[in-house]
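Design job #97: recover the sequence.
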């Protein structure tokens, strides 16, 4: 079974601060990269432990143009998709040949609780809905995977993204590596505790995927997107895109035939807004 891993940094073990840890100019960014690589390696090890035939990891944290994971320290059995821009961003590389997807180091959606919660762009987006369902990066990326017929079986991060994932994907397994207290403070476990948890969960995920325990996330077509920006100026800029409808001062709406097309339109709107 082929396994696809999408990795972000905000939900990684020990990461709580954007300025110091998640931006490439932060004094603790290099430490955060090592922590991210460690969590990802735990998932890779678990997948191969359970009989995965191939593992591909997409580096999905954008502040450093998706060049966060330390390739010299990544498990040599896995391949790494790194760099930016990537057409599917955090999901670049996924296709219908994968048996299951895992999201490592994910965070809660914008306008919700959780460590460094946001959706794609913390500066631009306040909310995103698909067919009336509020989604963050977990939902958007699960819908992309679902467009290829691939189910998401595991999400790791804080308790807020775990709850969000479980509500949207009732079958999903989660690993909570920290308990968010505020948006930039959490009760954290050490990597020596969380990595065995991630490895065990990833191994179990591959076994359960082989048994058909997970379902791809799908939405009825055409997909109806609603996108709320933080202010009207951002919405003014994004509204220049063809095919979008202005709902109110801060909200645009558009339709898409499938989640892959919908995601690309959404990313274009974010680009215009910024």
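Job complete. Output follows.
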């Amino acid at each position: 079974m082929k396994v696809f891993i999408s990795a972000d940094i905000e939900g990684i073990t020990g990461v709580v601060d954007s300025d110091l840890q998640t931006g490439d100019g932060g004094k603790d960014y290099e430490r955060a990269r090592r922590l991210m690589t460690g969590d990802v390696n735990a998932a890779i090890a678990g997948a191969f432990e359970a009989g995965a035939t191939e593992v591909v990891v997409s580096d999905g944290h954008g502040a450093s143009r998706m060049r966060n994971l330390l390739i010299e320290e990544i498990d040599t059995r896995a391949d790494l998709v790194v760099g930016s821009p990537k057409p599917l961003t955090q999901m670049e590389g996924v296709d219908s040949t994968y048996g299951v997807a895992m999201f490592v180091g994910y965070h809660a959606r914008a306008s919700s609780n959780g460590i460094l919660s946001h959706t794609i762009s913390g500066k631009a987006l306040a909310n995103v809905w698909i067919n009336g369902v509020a989604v963050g990066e977990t939902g958007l990326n699960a819908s992309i995977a679902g467009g290829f017929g691939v189910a998401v079986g595991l999400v790791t991060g804080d308790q807020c993204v775990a709850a969000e994932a479980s509500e949207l994907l009732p079958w999903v397994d989660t690993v909570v590596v920290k308990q968010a207290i505020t948006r930039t403070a959490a009760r954290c476990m050490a990597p020596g505790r969380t990595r065995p948890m991630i490895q065990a969960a990833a191994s179990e995920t591959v076994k359960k995927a082989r048994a058909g325990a997970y379902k791809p996330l799908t939405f009825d077509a055409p997909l109806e997107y609603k996108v709320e920006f933080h202010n009207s100026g951002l919405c003014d800029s994004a509204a220049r895109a063809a095919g979008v409808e202005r709902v109110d001062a801060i909200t645009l709406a558009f339709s898409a035939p499938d989640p892959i097309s919908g995601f690309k339109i959404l990313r274009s709107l974010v680009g215009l807004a910024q």
